[in-house]
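Supplementary Note 3. Input sequence used for the single-chain structure prediction.
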Amino acid sequence: MRAFSTTALRLRHQALTALLLGVTMTSVGCKHAAAPTTSTAGSPAAAPVVDPATAGSISGTVHFDGKAPAPVAIDMSMDPACAMSATPNNSEQIVVANHALANVYVYVKSGIPASAAPAGTAPVVLDQKGCRYVPHVIALQQGGSVEFHNSDPTMHNIHTTPTDGTASVDVSQSPMGAPQTQKFDKPETMLPVRCNNHPWMNSFINVAPNPYFAVTGADGSFTLKNLPPGTYTVAAVHETLGEQDIQVTVPAKATAPAAFTFAAK
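The predicted structure, written as discrete structure tokens, is reproduced below.
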């Protein structure tokens, strides 16, 4: 009986030793297998906090010099659903009214650190309506998203064509189908968007490196608000007329004027 007890104790001791050894080895294994910490060096951080007591702004207009080309009517008869559109479909390459140029992307190009869109920022909507992309030009801050809609009773497609080696977006949407959202993490200027189903459809996505950006409307105006006092490079980019850069100094608690003038090439 004593021998049996001794044997049992020895077996229990061996089992406990094995268990402790296994725990130790598992702990060591977990330590070596831990995922490396992801470096955030070079990644855009949150935008710096701006003192509202000193913040200023930049405001101005993008002008067009000379006679603007007349819009060209687009034949959409290849798709009966498009041909039924009540809105005339004209080219939007150069849209001018009273010498003001629409669809120009204006942003602070340098003078402030890059930053990402805050979490929870609502996506910018790009709709497909009347067999057109609406709006023709959109802008968002890097780290933000675009929500693609299809309001038409026909199949559409969103196909971006980046030139910097980043992956393109190429998704199809059923008639009046559910929206699809795509995140954009790198700055872009005039990223082309096309529809594989309707070759006349085109638009442009701009991704800003900071929260200071705008797209001019029919009156050519823009405003960049809540800037800390300082000197900045401000860029105006048009899909065919190119880019212009100017230096603008923003005083404390004031609005600095800025103006751009483009002409047909």
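The longest strand covers residues 56-65. DSSP finds two helices and 18 strands in the chain.
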